[in-house]
Amino acid sequence: AQSVTQLDSQVPVFEEAPVELRCNYSSSVSVYLFWYVQYPNQGLQLLLKYLSGSTLVESINGFEAEFNKSQTSFHLRKPSVHISDTAEYFCAVSDQSTSGTYKYIFGTGTRLKVLA
Amino acid sequence: DGGITQSPKYLFRKEGQNVTLSCEQNLNHDAMYWYRQDPGQGLRLIYYSQIVNDFQKGDIAEGYSVSREKKESFPLTVTSAQKNPTAFYLCASTKKPRTGELFFGEGSRLTVL
After folding, report:
1. pLDDT tens-digit readout, B12-53
2. Which of A85, A91, A99 is nearest to A21 (CA)?
3. For residue A28, what pLDDT is reported?
4. pLDDT per residue over B59-96, tens digit each?
5. CA nearest A39 in B: which residue?
6. Would the pLDDT of A105 be above 70?
C-alpha cells in the first residue's frame, strides 16, 4: 500500500522569500501524486498533480512541484510567497486496494505561515 | 453551480447518540469518499464508494457506516461505537478514481459533548 510522509508540520517564512514543502512517497510503481491546499474551516482544493510526462508541474498561482523517482519525492516550491499563501498543504497519492478500487492517501499536512 | 454540499456545517451531540452527516454532489461523479481530519493527523479515509450500492472500508471504518443508494448521495453515520467522534469530516468526489482531482465539500464539524 502507498503512503505519504510530510516531515514538516509547520513552516514559517517571511513574505517574498522562497519556500519548499517536502513530500515523500513509499512506492514508485505507477504513482500518481497530488498537492492540495486548505484554508481555515474549508475543504481542500487541488493545487497541482503529477500523472506522467514532464517531472515538473506548475499551478496557476506560482507553485511548482518536481517528481523525483530516485528520491521518491514530490516537493512543493514557490520562489516568492505572499501573505495569502498562509494555509495548510497536503500531499496525496492514489493507491489501488486489494479489491481493485482506488483510494487517495493523504499526508499529515504542512502548515505554511507567511510572516510580514 | 456544480459542487459538493455537506450538511450540517456544525453539529453537537451527546455521547451515545448516532449522527448522520449528509453529502450530496451534482457533479455526476461516480466515486465518493469520506475523510476524518484531526489536528496533526492529516486526512484519514473512513469509507469510499466507486459505484452505487457498493462501498469499501477505509483505514478507520470502525464505528462508522455509510450507504450509497443514489449516485448523488453518500451519507455517513457516526455511531455510538465510535470512541472518539469529535472531528472535522470531509466528503469528496471524483470523476476518475486513481488519476482524477478530488472535489471537496466544506466539511462538517462534529462535537460530542
Report:
1. 999 889 999 999 999 999 999 999 999 889 999 999 999 999
2. A91
3. 64
4. 999 999 999 999 999 999 999 888 899 999 999 999 99
5. B106
6. yes
The nearest CA of chain B is from the CA of A73 a distance in Å of: 18
What pLDDT digit, counting tens, does each position of A62-85 carry? 999 999 999 999 999 999 999 999
So what's the pLDDT on residue A63? 96
What cell does A38 get? 486548505
CB distance A42–B106 less than 8 Å? yes
Q: Dump the DSSP string for A77-112.
A: EESS--GGG-EEEEEEEEEE-TTS-EEEEE---EEE
Q: Which of A44, A101, A103 sits opposite B104 (nearest CB)?
A: A44
User: Residue-wise over B6-45: b if at least 16 C-beta within 10 A, else e?
Assistant: beeeebebeeeeebebebbbeeebbbbbbbbbeeeebbbb
* B positions 30-89 inside 8 Å of A (CB): 31, 33, 35, 40-45, 48, 50, 56, 58
